[in-house]
What we know:
Mean pLDDT: 85
Oligomer: single chain
Low-confidence stretches: none
Largest sheet: 3 strands, antiparallel
CATH class of the largest domain: Mainly Alpha
Amino acid sequence: MTESDNADRALLERKVRRAFQVLVLQRGRNPGVKGWEMKRHLGRDYRKIIEVLSEDMAPMGLEVFEVKGIDGTDDSSRFLLRFKDPPTVTEAETAGIRIDDLAVLAATIAFVNSKTGRAARREVEQFLREKFPRWRVDYSLDRYVKRGYLEQDERTMMHIGWRTRAEVDEKTLMTLILSRAQEAAKK
């Protein structure tokens, strides 16, 4: 290896460490980092650096995940570290998430997806109140909107938020719900 190769490798390693630090340190309420911030911290080749970091994180069961922005540009995308495999219920509970809160979120995601990705808040509330207490429904929906799991426009229509797209495997969730429903129908 030449001196130039060693210098390039050292620079790449520094940038990968910097990318990890940028992703881990939380700024504001929402986890992750916008594309324009990654470009500012790492340079124009930030996507290459993110790929290297994601490969480095794989043995630990983590990956760098990109949530595309609404306008589809790189600058509006959000990057965050997430588990490659979904956490178990026990792991979720140790992270401070109550099982009934997870149930409200899962039911809401399933309901909104069954309505082609958009549902009136009133419909969602009515559906959830058949299964959960009124106070839990109101509290949970507001909380999940604040945290980015759900999005809401003018307090009328709800749809899946960026954080659900990043942290929840919606296809697996829907498959599990449908398989449980089929088992219950057989009984």
